[in-house]
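Preliminary data (for renewal application), zinc ion complex.
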Amino acid sequence: MTLPEVIRAAPPPVHPEDLAERQDVIAAALAMLREGLVVGMVGNVSRRLGGRILITPSRTPYVSMGPEDLVLVDLEGRRISGAAEPSIELPLHLAVYRSHPEAAAVIHTHSPKATAWSFLGEPLLPETEENRYYGVGPVRTDPPAPAGSAALAEAAKSMGDSLAVLLGGHGVLATGATLEGALDVARVVERQAEIAWLLRNSAS
Ligand SMILES: [Zn+2]
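Predicted structure:
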């Protein structure tokens, strides 16, 4: 096959209608990885597209993830498109969208300092300037529940008006009115946990 034939044979872009949104989800996942909020293929990212949710797939490394790897589901979790399985934490994401109509994106990380704090079972205190600046609100810690379980999805309800909650012995659940906003919330919670640990260690 000559080069022009190869070019003509190239498949058309998949999902051109929401390609930019898909690229945004991948960019957020890569930022999460680059900043040490997760490792490898752990954690997950989703964003709302009208009445549908675009979410990262299960067990796919972020560094090799393409737009076509993302999974599109409805608010009941029924798959609309995407060959891969959606993230195991899809019920957790859906619970946030159902209980927070203003939520445009959800990010779940295992960032180390916040995750360490989640093992204490305590609210994340004190509130920091960043917490106030970004309007995150009180960050509670939910009781431990298995990954992917309906019990874990209950964490969405305990967020209340806050933009984040700690999942007991597990990690961080963050949301926002934009995808970048949700990523900022995840960053703010990790920074807040770092400060909380500094204070806790200085007191001992
Ligand atoms: Zn997790």
